[in-house]
Amino acid sequence: xxxxxxxxxxxxxxxxxxxxxxxxxxxxxxxxxxxxxxxxxxxxxxxxxxxxxxxxxxxxxxxxxxxxxxxxxxxxxxxxxxxxxxxxxxxxxxxxxxxxxxxxxxxxxxxxxxxxxxxxxxxxxxxxxxxxxxxxxxxxxxxxxxxxxxxxxxxxxxxxxxxxx
Amino acid sequence: xxxxxxxxxxxxxxxxxxxxxxxxxxxxxxxxxxxxxxxxxxxxxxxxxxxxxxxxxxxxxxxxxxxxxxxxxxxxxxxxxxxxxxxxxxxxxxxxxxxxxxxxxxxxxxxxxxxxxxxxxxxxxxxxxxxxxxxxxxxxxxxxxxxxxxxxxxxxxxxxxxxxxxxxxxxxxxxxxxxxxxxxxxxxxxxxxxxxxxxxxxxxxxxxxxxxxxxxxxxxxxxxxxxxxxxxxxxxxxxxxxxxxxxxxxxxxxxxxxxxxxxxxxxxxxxxxxxxxxxxxxxxxxxxxxxxxxxxxxxxxxxxxxxxxxxxxxxxxxxxxxxxxxxxxxxxxxxxxxxxxx
Lengths: 165, 342
Fold this sequence. Notes:
The complex is a heterodimer.
Chain A: H1 7-24, E1 31-35, H2 38-50, E2 57-59, H3 68-71, E3 90-98, H4 102-114, E4 119-128, E5 139-144, E6 152-155, E7 161-164
Parallel strand pairs in A: 1-2, 1-3, 3-4, 4-5
Antiparallel strand pairs in A: 6-7
Helix pairs in contact in A: 1-2
Chain B: H1 38-56, E1 70-75, H2 81-92, E2 96-101, H3 113-121, E3 127-132, H4 137-142, E4 150-156, H5 162-176, E5 184-188, H6 195-206, E6 211-215, E7 231-233, H7 236-239, E8 245-248, H8 264-271, H9 275-278, E9 286-288, H10 301-304, H11 311-330
Parallel strand pairs in B: 1-2, 1-3, 3-4, 5-6, 5-8, 6-7, 8-9
């Protein structure tokens, strides 16, 4: 099994890479969107490190999941707080662990229900293999090879730590 | 107060009828009555409603949860408010909704209830929301639908109106917090004819409310009221003392047969909630009413429009609560016998 770096180290790396990405793509006024729950912790840290002027937005994708009719309702869905205007914004979508890609699919569906962004760039702390949809991140803290029986989760918000089972 | 089911008030329903509400995994499949559900499911409905309250506060009030599902409002009894909020709830969940006003349709031509139902089922629906003037109608329908179809009771005779009671509990929880044990709740009015009151009493007891009081003249109380786990008062002034929540019921003129009251005027003078009478309740007590209100009959305008009234909030919360019930009922792992539309 790979050695997994500490979340703080990955965050530092992502902050540097994200600054560079925003410069390369000439994005001046990004809208950062964190996906509940782990993605919001990561996004908060990145938002602070980069000192982004636009307030951080958050998404709970529970209502957009594709497995609702199998696993039923999550009774405690957190409120999504997208700003009234996503039209023409450059969105930086942030999540903790990228695996099947279904969470990101759901997040994009939810964003598009609010309007038409100019672009969406995906930032993930960790990319483990296991994609079931054609979805890739623009920036990744660390790529991991985990077995199909293994699971990785981010615990937090303080301190942030990976839990591998 | 312990959760005391009142079998005596349901001669038409039978002792274990509420069991058909749950599937073999203990998940809600039909929503017919609060009796027999237990505090865990009741609390889950309230928590789920909180999630939907957030959706309803957004600019974009729609989620794709029930997309592709067909829901039928089957109202054998007139209603605008309840039917409209169910319709709104279904639409915000992206479901398709049909409104069938049965009083103008086939049953007035003599078609039996079962035949009507079978015809509707041939249209391949996923859920029926039923309001009927006969107690037990929703249970009867739930026992006769195809395995994958769910039924929600929107009010059956004098028996139950569970979604109303749930939105009332939601309103109380939003205003008074999660600990019902420290609350004194007074329900005032025509308890005898009120399916709302019965459901509210079951819900309050399920949530272990500290003190559940009913206040009414003897002629408007069911004979077995003592077995329902409530304290009975015939005098408004005494009963309302130190109440945290006051729930006023509408005087149901259309249900009254025979002279149960001398006059509306007399009722108002003894049981009408005026600003003055309300002062006997706690200073931060809230005033509720399932609606529609009869100004000057059970409640003074000043109170209905006053700052302790949460009557309009109840209407708003009704949408979130109904969204919660509908999504819980339709969002279950289907069981082996529920193979689908056919």
